[in-house]
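Human: I'm a chemist; would you kindly supply sequence and C-alpha cells for a protein?

Assistant:
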Amino acid sequence: MSIARAARRTAARLGAVVLTGALLAACGSSTDGASEDGAGGEVTITVDLFGSFGYKEAGLYAEYERLHPGVTIKQTDTEDEADYWKSLQTRLAGGGGLADVQGIEVGRIASVTQQQAERFEDLKKYGADSLKDQFAPAKWAAATGKGGEVLGLGTDVGPEALCYRTDLFKQAGLPTDREELAKKWDTWDGYLELGKQYKAKAPGKSAWIDSVGSLYSIMIGQEKERYYDASGKLIWEDNPALRTAWDHAVEAAQGGLSAKLDQWSPQWNQAFAAGSFATIPCPAWMLGYIKGQAGEAGKGKWDVATLPGGAGNWGGSYLAVPRAAKHKKEAYELIKWLTAPEQQTRLFEKQGNFPSATGAIEKVAGAKDAFFSDAPTGKIFGDAAKAAPVQVLGVHDQNIAQQITNALSEVERKGTSPEKAWSNAKKGVENTIG
C-alpha cells in the first residue's frame, strides 16, 4: 500500500473495520484492553492499520490465534492513510489511545526514525537484531534510528507494474497480449500515445486511466531521489525527474485520458467493477485491492504487464510497537511472525502484497495469478523489485506527495492551469512542513 501507499484501502473490498479517530483511540485504550484481557494468560493484542495489509483476509490472524491459545487479535483499519497518520500523531502526542501494533507507511518511516524514535519501542530489546538478514538491506535500514534502534519490521514493498482491462482493450481495438503491450508502452510517451488511441474508440464512458495522481505516483516511484537528496536537503522544486512526472500527469489530464476519480473514494472503488477505466498503475499491493473491488465477475478480465519507463517502487509498510502499548512483548512476537518469510509468502499468494523478506521473494518467483489472466506476477514484480532504485526517504515525503497530487487534481477536475496548480502545490508544501 502504501500507496499506498497508501496507501494500501477500503472497508468494502475486504471487510475492514473503518473507524473514526475517536473510535480508533477507544479500541486501543487501556480501558478497552482491560475489559478484554482476562485471567489465565489470555491477552488481546490490538492492531491499528490503514488500508489493505491483508492479514485478516489471508487467514493469518486466525492461524496465529490457533498457534497461541489465549491470544486474541483485534484489528482496526482506517481507509485513507493520510487520515490514519493524522490520528496517530494526535494519539502519539497524548500518549494514549494507541494500539499494541501500529502500521507505518514507507513515506512516513523517516519521520519515525528521525523525529519520533522516543515514542516507539526499540525492537532490539526483544531480539530483533537476529532478524536483520531476513530482510532486504534497504528495507531494514529505513526503519533503523539514528542510534541504531530498530523501530519497525518491514511488511511488503511496492514494486510497480501496469494493470489493465483486456475486455476494454479488445473493444477499443487495442492488443491485449501483455508482452506486446509492454513493447508498445516501453516509455511513458508510448503509454500516453496508446491512451489517445484508446480514447478515440473507448467503449461506453470509460477512460484510459483512473486519475492523473496515480500516474504521477507511479512515475515518481521510479526515481531514487524525489523530494530530498541523500544529504537530507529538500530538492523537490528543482528535481527534473519530478517535473517530468508532473508534466506527463498534466498531459494526461488536459488530454482527457483520466476518469477524474479520487483514489480511495467510494466512486473510485465502484469504478473497478463498472469498467470506468482501462488501465491503472499497480504496485503489487494493488492486486488484492482490485480483486476485492472488481469481485468474482472481474476474474479473467484483468491482466498485468511490465511498467513503462523502467522499474520503480510505490509504497510498502512497517509494523511498529508504540512505547505506550499495553502488550509490548506480545506485540513484538506477533509482528515477528507476520513479517517472517513464510507468512510474507502466503500473503503474496493470497493478496498480492510483495514480500520484503529475501527468502519469501525467492519462493514467489514462479507465482501466477488466475484473477489476472494467469499473469506471471511473481516474475513481473520480482524483476521490478530487483531493478527498482533504493529510494532516498525524507521526513515529509508523504506530505509533499499529497500536496502535488492535490494540485494535479485541480488541473484534472477544475481545469486549473498547470502554472497556477504548481504554485498552489508550493504554497501547500510551505504550509504543511514550514
Observations:
- Residues 397-414 form the longest helix (18 residues).
- The two ends are 27 Å apart (CA to CA).
- The beta strands are 43-50, 71-78, 101-105, 153-165, 207-209, 277-283, 302-305, 313-320, 354-355.
